[in-house]
Amino acid sequence: MRTAKRGAFIVLEGCDRSGKSSQSRLLYEFLTSNGYPAKHMHFPSRTTEIGSTINSYLKNSKELNDQVIHLLFSANRWEFLKEMQNLLNTGTTLIVDRYSYSGVAYSVAKGMDFDWCMAPEKGLLRPDAVFYLKAPIDYLIQRDDFGRERYEKKDFQSKVANVFDRLCEEQTEFWHSIDASQSEAVVFEDIRLKAMSVLNKAKHKPLCLL
Ligand code: Z5A
Ligand code: MG
């Protein structure tokens, strides 16, 4: 893979309502307004055929077994692999709202095997950094709109948080835990500083695979 001045691959992960979409948007806007080529992406991408099936499942209008929906979430990321690779290799930084780790966390929280859940992610791009937005579930469930979709239940979210905690503890070289209970501006300042360091380091590093 090319190594010259590529863009950085930054992922935001965390439980529902932890602020991933708000913070990834702020980071994207900060980068583009300061002259850094960047693209903001979100998984699941509900725009493809696979994404539309995932949307129906999340909105409780379609039933699928746990293995099938797990593989569809993964397939949805595979749909974008080439595009992501091309963008990174031509110098665009990707700010991605949820990725493979959400895939693993939500399925493992249902009781599925960790290694089985990780297997279909193998061969996708590995992020340069994962910003894990962490806050107590009791606090997050008070934020707007919690409870509308399938997984938005307190006990389930606590199980999801346990998996994210485990991933963060095991992958300290590129996971960064961020205190998401602070104000939006304080959280963003933390993310912005960390992101700039990631951008500088990623420039000359080869892209790695999961
Ligand atoms: N899922 C899966 O199972 N497998 C997979 O592989 C993938 C996903 C990729 C949909 O995801 C579901 O898909 C999700 C996981 C599963 N589970 N559920 N349900 P989604 O990303 O489409 O979900 P979403 O509804 O767009 O986002 P979210 O995670 O629920 O929220 P968020 O993006 O983390 O938060 P936000 O939208 O930025 O903020 C939420 C609210 O809090 C909003 O009113 C903000 O103004 C407020 N907020 C944000 N930050 C703050 C601070 N710092 N202080 C106070 N208030 C704040
Ligand atoms: Mg969101």
Describe the structure.
The protein has 210 residues and is of the alpha/beta class. It has one domain (9-202): 3-Layer(aba) Sandwich (Rossmann fold), CATH 3.40.50.300. Helices cover 48% and strands 13% of the residues. It has nine helices and five strands. It has a five-stranded parallel beta sheet with strand order 2-3-1-4-5, sandwiched between helices. Helix 1 (20-33) packs across helix 9 (184-202) and helix 3 (66-78) packs antiparallel against helix 5. It starts with 8 loop residues before the first strand and ends in an 8-residue tail after the last helix. The mean pLDDT is 96. The protein binds ligand Z5A and magnesium ion. Residues 20-21, 97 line the site of magnesium ion (MG). Magnesium ion binds at residues 20-21, 97. It is an enzyme of class 2 (transferase).
Q: How do the helices and strands follow one another from N- to C-terminus? A: EHEHHHEHHEHHEH
- Overall pLDDT metric: 96
Report the end-to-end length measured between terminal Cα atoms.
15 Å
Please indicate the percent range of residues in DSSP E strands (runs of 2 or more). 5-15%
> What is the number of helical segments per DSSP (H or I, 4+ residues)?
9
- Quaternary state of this entry equals single chain
Indicate the radius of gyration in whole angstroms.
16 Å
Query: What number of structural domains do the residues give?
Result: 1
The 3D shape can be described as: globular
The strand order across the widest sheet is 2-3-1-4-5
Computed structural class? alpha/beta
Bound molecules: ligand Z5A, magnesium ion
**Tally of DSSP β-strands:** 5
CATH topology: Rossmann fold
**Low-confidence blocks of residues:** none
CATH class: Alpha Beta
